[in-house]
């Protein structure tokens, strides 16, 4: 049985394809369109998935979309009755939802031979947050778990709690739009001068530079409810629908969510590009801490309500790796599973799993610990490409390649590493990575200023061989998707300064030999030469989506100051 899942007409459009519950391929549309957070129909991602599966659209048994315009219909009507000025915006969104309910036309462009009637029968709408829940629980190793989906909004819900048992998910409760932990964080992100969709991670990176002086002030805008969920004080926010969610040219954006009352309470908003003052840093710290406190509050109640030992989490807020690293210790959950694509791209995967496991009552497949489900290119394809561009290169066997690359890193040098299948999700995990020596104290500033061209306060991640994590971090949990931040042992800070954030933490990826054999081999070669089983790892891009093809990798290499480019076994250097 083949199931094709998609996220369409929503930020981080994507596609994923499964055969008998096993994921064959999954990727975001932005990797092909080269537009961050692309929000249209994922035609190119769908074609890629079908090609990887070796089937035509006609052979797909079900097509699932992680969105259901009919969800919470009565709640939406009641919301509009209380806010009649928002009716016009609701009509515009209804037109957008009509796109979702007329997907047949888009699929006909992919394969005109499939009859409309067949397409209509195959397409299944799976509510947004149930898709998130499924992406986490059904991919996890747990037979039973509490589940949390928490993000900005989707299908008139912003937070959903549930319990998973076997191949079933039981929803327990939810928080209705517009009250939202994700939008709360977005409002402060905008206020701090980061206006673009998806900029929230910048606040998370800025937070360690401040002190939590304003926790009580920030908490005033929220209400922690006795049932373990939350609300907020409306006067601090512009109604999100009035602020304006837009998808112009398939690029998502949202207007300012903070109100006049918000400005009265927190001062004048920082303009984009203005100096970051200590107040801004302290406010970022406070917002991050309050967000962590809210997540822990929800999860503690969820644990008490369900009695479960393990928890699975998805949704945009689940990308807050600083909060994720504190969950187990703060809540008492023994196991925490977060998928590689916890954000909205993951609902393509989740909607397909929900249909297969929950709806069709099929048995669950093996847990998902690999994010390598995207594009791939053979050495022969890469050589043909490099020759077409008149690029000099050397093709080396793995042992010699690892030796050459690690020597370059130790010089010190910066290397673009393009290896195997691309990752599904926002994190580079050694498939499409820029790597450097974590011992080089100057590497962070070099990468930020001359290669990534981004804010100087943003940190870089350590990829560490799994079995050595206990030697460098205060916690030794497996972290396959770089989804958690842990404290680095104080005695190791001076040894690996390039991946030690200002607060002494690191957003680690534990590299497993069975899951990432070549990346593991490279780090092991570096360890043998230096004694350090870690590489600095950041995504292979420069203010664009992560590179997807050898051509994009080469172009990024040529316009930045990387010292070496490795495309599978082919090595390109500046000389």
Helix segment tally: 21
- What is the domain total for the residues? 3
Measured distance between first and last alpha carbons:
51 Å
Overall pLDDT metric = 95
Q: Give the helix proportion (percent range).
A: 25-40%
Architecture per CATH nomenclature, i.e. the level-2 architecture of the largest domain: 2-Layer Sandwich
Number-wise, the strands total 23
* Poorly predicted residue ranges: none
Shape: globular
Please state the structural category.
Answer: alpha/beta
Q: Walk across the major sheet and give the strand order.
A: 15-23-22-16-17-21-18-20-19
Percent of sequence in beta strands: 15-25%
CATH-assigned fold name of the largest domain:
Nucleotidyltransferase, domain 5
């Amino acid at each position: 049985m083949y199931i094709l899942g998609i996220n369409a007409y929503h930020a981080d459009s994507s596609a994923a394809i499964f055969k008998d519950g096993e994921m064959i391929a999954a990727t975001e549309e932005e990797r092909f369109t080269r537009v961050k957070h692309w929000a249209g129909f994922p035609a190119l991602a769908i074609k890629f998935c079908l090609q990887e599966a070796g089937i035509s659209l006609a052979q797909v048994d079900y097509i699932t979309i992680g969105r259901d315009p009919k969800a919470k219909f009565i709640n939406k009507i009641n919301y509009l009755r209380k806010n009649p000025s928002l009716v016009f915006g609701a009509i515009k969104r209804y037109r957008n939802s009509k796109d979702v309910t007329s997907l047949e036309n888009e699929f006909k462009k992919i394969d005109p031979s499939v009859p409309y009637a067949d397409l209509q029968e195959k397409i299944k709408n799976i509510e947004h947050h149930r898709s998130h829940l499924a992406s986490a629980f059904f991919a996890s190793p747990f037979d039973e778990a509490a589940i949390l989906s928490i993000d900005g909004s989707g299908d008139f819900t912003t937070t959903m709690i549930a319990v998973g048992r076997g191949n079933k998910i039981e929803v327990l409760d939810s928080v209705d739009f517009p009250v939202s932990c994700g939008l709360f964080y977005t409002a402060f992100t905008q206020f701090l001068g980061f206006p673009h969709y998806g900029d929230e991670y910048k606040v998370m990176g800025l937070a360690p530079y401040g002190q939590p002086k304003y926790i009580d002030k920030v908490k005033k805008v929220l209400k922690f409810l006795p049932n373990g969920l939350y609300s907020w004080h409306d006067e601090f926010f512009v109604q999100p629908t009035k602020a304006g969610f837009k998808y112009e040219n398939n690029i998502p954006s949202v207007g300012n969510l903070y109100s006049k009352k918000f400005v009265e309470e927190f001062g004048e908003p920082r303009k984009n590009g203005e100096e970051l003052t200590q107040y801004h840093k302290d406010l970022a710290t406070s917002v991050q801490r309050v967000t962590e406190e809210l997540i822990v509050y929800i999860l503690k109640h969820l644990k008490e309500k369900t009695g479960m030992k393990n928890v699975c989490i998805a949704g945009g807020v689940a990308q807050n790796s600083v909060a994720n690293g504190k969950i187990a210790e703060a809540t008492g959950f023994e196991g925490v599973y977060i998928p590689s694509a916890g954000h909205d791209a993951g609902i393509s995967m989740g909607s397909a799993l929900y249909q297969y496991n929950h709806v069709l009552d099929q048995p669950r497949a093996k847990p998902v610990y690999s994010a390598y489900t995207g594009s791939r290119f053979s050495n022969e394809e890469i050589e043909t490409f490099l020759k077409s561009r008149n690029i000099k290169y050397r093709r080396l066997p793995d042992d010699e390649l690892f030796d050459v690359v690690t020597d370059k890193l130790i010089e010190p040098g910066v290397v673009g590493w393009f290896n195997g299948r691309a990752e599904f999700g926002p994190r580079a995990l050694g498939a499409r990575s820029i790597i450097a020596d974590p011992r080089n104290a100057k590497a962070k500033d070099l990468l930020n200023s001359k290669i990534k061209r981004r804010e100087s306060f943003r940190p870089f991640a350590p990829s560490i061989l799994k079995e050595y994590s206990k030697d460098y971090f205060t916690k030794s949990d497996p972290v396959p998707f770089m989804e958690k931040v842990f404290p680095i042992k104080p005695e190791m800070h001076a040894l690996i300064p390039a991946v030690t954030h200002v607060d002494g933490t690191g957003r680690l990826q534990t590299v497993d030999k069975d899951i990432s054999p070549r990346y593991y081999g490279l780090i092991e070669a570096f360890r043998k030469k230096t004694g350090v089983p870690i590489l600095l790892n950041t995504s292979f891009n420069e203010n664009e989506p992560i590179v997807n093809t050898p051509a994009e990798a080469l172009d990024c290499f040529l316009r930045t100051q990387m010292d070496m480019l490795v495309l599978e076994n082919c090595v390109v250097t500046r000389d």
